[in-house]
Amino acid sequence: MAPITVVEGRRLALSNLEKVLYPATGFTKGEVLHYYATVAEVLLPHLRDRAVSFLRYPDGPDGQVFFTKNVPPGTPEWVTTAEVPRVEGPSRMVLVQDLPSLMWAANLVTEFHTHQWLVDTPDEADRIVFDLDPGAPASIVQCCEVALWLRERLADDGIEAYAKTSGSKGLHLLAAVRGASSEQVSEYAKELAVEAEKAMPRLALHRMTRSLRPGKVFVDWSQNAARKTTATPYTLRARPEPTVSAPVTWEEIERCEAPARLDFDARDLAPRVRDHGDLLAPLLDAERAGSLP
């Protein structure tokens, strides 16, 4: 029988704590849960009031990996859910609002993915995101070059950008916005991706065409669509090692000369949070949100 843990008054059955989920490092399910509890203070604000899609990998990244968007069977009644619009019709999804619901979700072994809008205002985007995805032999080093160009271009329009690693190969650029629909944000993001390609034709690419991507950075603007989700800040990823989508400073991006410089896993995050706090906290401040031109 799974041990029962009480988290802020909620009873949770946490199962298979000794199970190794990341064989390359011996990282266990118990360590996954410990990681999420450790970063809960900075993670929860980025999950709160957003419908969550789970990328689940209960047997580790080498086992079955699948998305869960609807409320999973067996979800406790105290976990907040909400009906959200979807292309194929409304759907009921989970909201991770507090530490008990975070630990319940973490026990499913999951990545967290969220939309660029809040559940109460699905018609208005509150974030813009660029997913910078390198095509080999390009790496996160080249992503940093593109990120620096996009940062300046966004600043020209009065929008302040922040960055995090994807937790995989690339980099995510995010900014808080207001007063625009997801469609309008998508159009604006595409315009900037096209501009980036024109400014750096040997480096940046705004089209998804696979044959064009070797050696370049795909500036994926499409994740701003209302139906799309992006890996939430601080989420673990289903990779061979317990890598994390980790916020980074612009100084780190400017100094990035090798991929290892921006490669963080769960064991790196506690000291980073102690040193930096939440580097993406400004995204949560509505007064700092920019308006699209």
UniProtKB/TrEMBL annotation:
GO terms for molecular function: DNA ligase (ATP) activity. Its EC number is 6.5.1.1. Residues 28-279 form the DNA ligase D polymerase domain. Pfam families: LigD_Prim-Pol (PF21686). Keywords: Ligase. InterPro entries: LigD_pol_dom, MtLigD_Pol-like, NHEJ_LigD. NCBIfam families: ligD_pol. This is Non-homologous end-joining DNA ligase.
